[in-house]
Design a protein that fits this description.
The chain contains 2 helices and no strands. By secondary structure, it is mostly helical.
Length: 66
């Protein structure tokens, strides 16, 4: 591209999220978002499991839920 500007030539169309030296912002964003996702799913998965156990115990004791 003869008339391309330097910013166009430097654009990284396929960034590597695992390469900290090449893309530090993408690297840290990638790890933050994945940690947030896994943490959220873990907390709410455990929360759901504990509620299921409680409902099952109440049901076996003859109690009603709700």
């Amino acid at each position: 591209h003869d008339h391309a500007r330097p910013a166009f030539v430097k654009y990284d169309s396929h960034p590597e999220p695992m390469n900290r030296e090449r893309n530090p912002a993408i690297f840290y964003s990638f790890w933050f978002m994945n940690t947030l996702l896994i943490g959220t799913l873990t907390v709410f998965g455990l929360h759901t499991l504990l509620w299921w156990v409680r409902i099952t115990i109440d049901h076996r004791k003859g109690g009603e839920h709700g």
